[in-house]
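Quick sanity check, TetR family transcriptional regulator:
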Amino acid sequence: MGTEAARIPARGEATEQRLIAAAERLFAEHGVGAVSLRTVMQAARTNVAAIHYHFGSKEGLLDAVLRSRLDQVTGERNAVLRESPGKDVAARDLARAFVRPVVAVLESGGECWIRLVGRLLATGGDGLDAVAESFFERNAAFVDQLDRLSPGVPRRTLDFRLSQAMTVTLNVLGDVGRTRRLHGADAAGWTDGQIVDDLVDVVTSMLAGPPGARRRK
């Protein structure tokens, strides 16, 4: 086993990780505005001074929570795009590249993070600006591929499709059990894989747009 895998987090790093984990869960459950720094501190078993030391403010803490997994999603998404440089990518390939990194976050224990970002999009609450500011910048390479897929479609339309695809993806993956309950008893046997495949189908349609999509003027 290499030294990196065996490395034990330093005390300050461990405190920072506990604060991020506690804030991620509390923000997802109650909303950013309803959670005080003292509540986060108590959940992380530390003190308010530690929050100010590591993050500066509540806004800094929220930014750290969002970035903790945004970097993972963006990295995995760009890695998929790098596998086929210079090639035209089909809409379903782009949909997979969009959905699968969020599935990876879910599988790595990030359900609360997915719910948090989905909640910010749905409610427009504190933190939405932080998501919006980085979303299109982080997905620039993805939007370039989407532009190649739909030449002549206005950029604002492509941006809109992408943002709505994100909303649907987070809504579904943030609570897969809710998706089953929404469809009644017949959906009780739906596997996670089947739901993800159906989600990829929906995102494919959203990214591709309708036949004869409006061209740039």
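Posting the structure with no commentary besides this: The chain has twelve helices and no strands.
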